[in-house]
Amino acid sequence: MPKGKVSPIWEYFEVDEADEATAICKVPGCKDRKVGRGNKETKKYNTTNLISHLKKHRVDYEKYCALKSAKESKEKRKRDEAEDDGEEGDDEEQMESTSSGRLRSKKDRETFLKKQSSLLGYITSTGDPTSSFRPSLNSDKYPRNDPRAKDRDRGILMMMCQDLRPYEVVNSPGFLYYSHVMDPHFEVRDDTYYRRVVNKVYTNSVGKVEEKLRQDNPSFISAQLDGWSANSNSYIGTIINYLNDDWKRVNISLGISKLNESHTGENMWNHLAETLQDWKVLDKTKVLISDSASNMLKMLEFAPPDVDLIRCLNHILNTIVGDELLKGPQVKGLISNVRDVTNYSHRSTLFAEDLRKRMESLGWEDKALIQDVVTRWNSSYDMLDRFLDLYEAVKKSLEDGWSERIKDGKIIKFSDANIKLVRTLTNTLGGFKDATLKLSRESACVSEYIPTVTVLMKTLEPSNTENDHGVKDLKRRLHSNFESRMDKMKIEEKESLALATLLDPRYKNSYFRLVSQGNK
């Protein structure tokens, strides 16, 4: 570790002898070894870039985290020992002990609340002069088994589960002080307690779900599954739906579990079957709902013959838009330019500030351009729609010299015809967004599948109106792609979809593209 450097990060770096504003990564095999120390001024050096760089080397980063945690624990023990000996330390040291966001010991918490009581007095005296409330630091605390304390502990657990908050939130200074102001008699426990209790909550929840499934005893269940990756792990979530005896829909999440093995069709079915069998609903599951990935289609080969697969329509709509938006050269180039301007507004603080000033001069609300994301539904529409909303501000910035800075000296301009085309694109894609939002509602029903397809296909039919100028080819390709997928899936011949549509009084047989199929 370099002389004078106390952070464990310096176990993996050394200062560049030729430039002390640069550090050199010591991890074997590192290709991009030189990392800036955050500033050219010695007093402003920091380790942020070094830590970010080390994350590329997962094993070494985990070792660094362990070293850092051990160092913090050692420093905390020293502080606790100093406090036990009556050494309070100066204000700066006490503030440092709370700035990390971790106040686990009772002594740390009491010290922090005493310091904050004077801050509250300042805030209320300079804010609302009629407010004289001061939470007492010496209030008697509820006993641990007091119903009021238990209610508040349950509330904290609910917040963690509902908002996906980490256990460490109960050690953060802001949360502790908020809790103290709301009820000075309640003493928030540390994260260890909530980690332990949440397992009991899970066990109780499992028991209640099992009891509900026994009582309802559904004869027909549909299962939804979806997968995603996070923190180098793959996860699969499973949800079931059914109607109870009162003809009310019941929606239950059976949980989320890791699946870090190969996502073959066979492995996917084995994982799903095991989950459904654990909840004793495997033999009642007759419909699966998933995306259109090839492994999902392959999975059906391993399922019982009476299990049907319904492909997620939202996923299909997103795929169609993604496939077709980038094929037409005119549309492709236009969207590329909009994306370049949008991305640059997020990379350059100067450009973003220039846009804010333009909006302010126009009397507009401060908004940011929206980046599109391949995996996020409707993001292309959102990007284009926001670009149109802020175009006058963007136009002024581009005309004042920003145009050639965005794309390696290549000037970006938007003609009136370009903007008209963007507007027509958003009108075309608006139908896809409306359909996606409708199908994403909690009340969405499978009976909306065929009608949604029929309406969208109708809106994509080419017309000779002026509004179609510039996007006729796009609409034609969207229509062709859509029609090809739906014909291949034979959705109007799929019994579950056709019956659901016919039995829904909103649709009956009016929304079949093939009238003969509806009559049949």
Topology:
Layout: E1 13-16, E2 19-25, E3 34-36, H1 48-54, H2 58-84, H3 91-99, H4 106-126, H5 147-163, H6 173-182, H7 191-216, E4 221-230, E5 233-243, E6 249-258, H8 265-278, E7 285-290, H9 294-299, E8 308-311, H10 313-325, H11 329-347, H12 349-361, H13 379-389, H14 391-406, H15 416-440, H16 449-459, H17 472-489, H18 495-503, H19 515-519
Parallel strand pairs: 4-7, 7-8
Antiparallel strand pairs: 1-2, 2-3, 4-5, 5-6
Helix pairs in contact: 4-6, 10-15, 10-17, 11-12, 12-14, 13-15, 15-16
Distance between the termini: 80 Å
Q: Whole-number radius of gyration?
A: 30 Å
Largest sheet: 5 strands, mixed
Query: What coarse outline follows from CA principal-axis ratios?
Result: globular
Query: How many E strands?
Result: 8
Number of separate helices:
19
Structural class comes to alpha/beta
How do the helices and strands follow one another from N- to C-terminus?
A: EEEHHHHHHHEEEHEHEHHHHHHHHHH
Q: What's this, in brief?
A:
This protein has 520 residues and is an alpha/beta fold. Helices cover 53% and strands 11% of the residues.
Describe this protein with a few key phrases:
three-stranded antiparallel sheet; 11% strand; 4 domains; globular; 520 residues; Nucleotidyltransferase, domain 5
What does this protein structure show overall?
- The chain has 520 residues and is α/β, with parallel strands linked by helices.
- The chain folds into four domains: 8-83, no CATH class; 98-195, no CATH class; 217-311, 2-Layer Sandwich (Nucleotidyltransferase, domain 5), CATH 3.30.420; 318-519, no CATH class.
- The protein is built from 19 helices and eight strands.
- The chain has helices at 48-54, 58-84, 91-99, 106-126, 147-163, 173-182, 191-216, 265-278, 294-299, 313-325, 329-347, 349-361, 379-389, 391-406, 416-440, 449-459, 472-489, 495-503, 515-519; strands at residues 13-16, 19-25, 34-36, 221-230, 233-243, 249-258, 285-290, 308-311.
- A hairpin with a 5-residue loop joins β5 and β6.
